[in-house]
Amino acid sequence: MSAEIISGKELAKSKREEMKKETARLKESGIVPGLAVILVGEDPASQSYVKAKQKACEETGILSEMDHVTTSISEEELLTKIENLNKADHIHGILVQLPLPDHISEKKVIETIDPEKDVDGFHPINIGRMMTGQQAFLPCTPFGIVEMIKSKNIDIQGKHVVVVGRSNIVGKPVGQLLLNEHATVTYCHSRTKNMQEYTRSADILIVAVGREHFIAGDDIKEGAVVIDVGVNRNKEGKLTGDVDFASAEQKASYLTPVPGGVGPMTITMLLHNTILSAKWKHNLNGF
Ligand code: GUN
After folding, report:
1. Taking every annotated instance into account, which residue ranges of this chain make up the domain Tetrahydrofolate dehydrogenase/cyclohydrolase NAD(P)-binding (predicted)?
2. How many domains does the chain have?
3. pTM of the predicted structure, to 2 decimals
4. Given a cut of 80, is residue 286 above it in pLDDT?
């Protein structure tokens, strides 16, 4: 078997074209979705993510405001900035790029963001809403993964989903979203015994551990759908996922590449959430 590739890049492109039309329609009613991004410090990876988010906003008709501050900012000063953005009428989404320096509490930062502007979907209120199936901002990477699976009309109901990794940003919420889609979900993590027993029984395998070649063809059931969330730099400086692509391709029915897979969808769902936030604020339905 040679897997069909699910191109996040292609799906992101078509979704962004739709969003561009949506922002143009909103503009006719005087609504311009606005995203505020706060970047603390000079971490190169964070800088490049933030730049990509801003560029995507610009291309989609979303206003983006960037506040780049040095690591000498105090926690209190940062929280004040967030409180001011909570009050700003033209801002519908607030994103504080993580990780933050050690002297600033991520928990306090996330909990200071107004849940109605939490387009990352990290606030405990949004996580609780997501878990109970209420209207919520869904975290962007898990949301993007579900969209990729649905884009191929893959049936999720009753399927065995195995999530490898249990981070708050990806592993835990993606399992929850797929549970909401009526999958049977198993989580594997660093203390799981006999992990291969689980991965080999997965109809849909989601790998988010941050280790190159963590999963190979031998760990995959014939015909499984394999979603690779990893973003690793190998010794040659090349971007790679958590899944050994060449061997996985021989076993899986569908497979996501790295780069060009989950990554472009994460930013796309951030745009989606920002537009949605602007629509909800003006009592318009989602899209
Ligand atoms: N750092 C890595 N991924 C993310 C993300 O999705 N949102 C924020 N705010 N920071 C991140």
Report:
1. 139-280
2. 2
3. 0.96
4. no
